[in-house]
Amino acid sequence: MPLSRMFPQIVVLVIALLGNTVSANAVLSRNYHPYSGEYGTPAGTAFSSSGEHLCGPITGFRVWEGSSSYITGIQLEFSNTWSNKHGIDTSKMHEVLLFPEEYITQVSGKDDTYIYQLIFVTSLGRIFFFGQPSGYSFNAFPGQKSNVLLFISGHSDAYALRGIGFHWDVPVSPVRDCRSVRG
Predict the structure, then answer these.
(1) What CA–CA distances, in Å, run from 22 to 10, 17, 28, 30, 47?
(2) How confident is the model at residue 32 (pLDDT cuts 50, 70, 90)?
(3) How confident is the model at residue 37 (pLDDT cuts 50, 70, 90)?
(4) Does residue 105 register a pLDDT over 80?
(5) Residues 172, 183: Cα–Cα separation, whole Å
(6) Chain-centre distance of CA 125, in angstroms?
(7) Do 59 and 148 contact (CB within 8 A), yes or no?
(8) Using one digit for the tens of pLDDT, what is the confidence trace for 119-158?
(9) Which of 2, 61, 101, 145: CA 20 to 30 A from 79?
(10) pLDDT at residue 183 above 70?
(11) Domain-by-domain residue ranges, the chain?
(12) pLDDT tens profile 69-91
């Protein structure tokens, strides 16, 4: 069959393929959260609070510091329900409860083979420092002004957090009852 006679069929095929690609990309974009990281070292046991974020927005967080200046653990509170702990909980724990309609809008810190420092900035301008200023600096923030910290992921080992990443999006309303989620 000459190419000129196949042209209409090729055009229809290309349009059909592009339509499927656009549809697939639209579905992916609805489930994709902008990501900053992973800062530190992607080694050890992986963790993520994805799924727990469906309980609602972050309303608080806990950070554990080790005596050797590492950040050893972290835990988020979603709509007043504490998530699973990530890393280990040592003796020095700090707890921050956010005000209503207050969100985490930036996380900075220091890393190397471990996470040494975390600095949280909120939508109300509050700043919280944890750990020691040792290692390489990082600064994570959402790509869009309307986005806030939705959940975290990363790696930990028996001593501390090895790496951490931040997932951003618009604040979420609770989509499930999370009273059974406990860390």
Answers:
(1) 18, 9, 10, 12, 31
(2) low
(3) confident
(4) yes
(5) 21
(6) 20
(7) no
(8) 999 999 999 999 999 999 999 999 898 999 999 999 999 9
(9) 145
(10) no
(11) 1-32, 34-169
(12) 789 999 999 998 999 999 998 87
The reported pLDDT for the residue numbered 12 is 40
Q: Which two tokens stand for residue 161?
A: 């957090």
* pLDDT for the residue numbered 89: 84
Identify whether 38 is preceded by a cis peptide bond (ω within 30 of 0): yes
Q: pTM for the full model?
A: 0.79
- Cα-Cα-Cα-Cα dihedral sign, residues 84, 89, 91, 92: negative
Length of the chain: 183
Query: Residue 107 in contact with residue 149, Cβ under 8 Å?
Result: yes
Q: Which two tokens stand for residue 68?
A: 């050797």
Tell me the fold of 34-169. Vitelline Membrane Outer Layer Protein I, subunit A (2.100.10)
Q: Which residues contact 157 (CB under 8 A, 6 or more apart)?
A: 43, 44, 45
Which residue do the tokens 């609602």 mark? 56
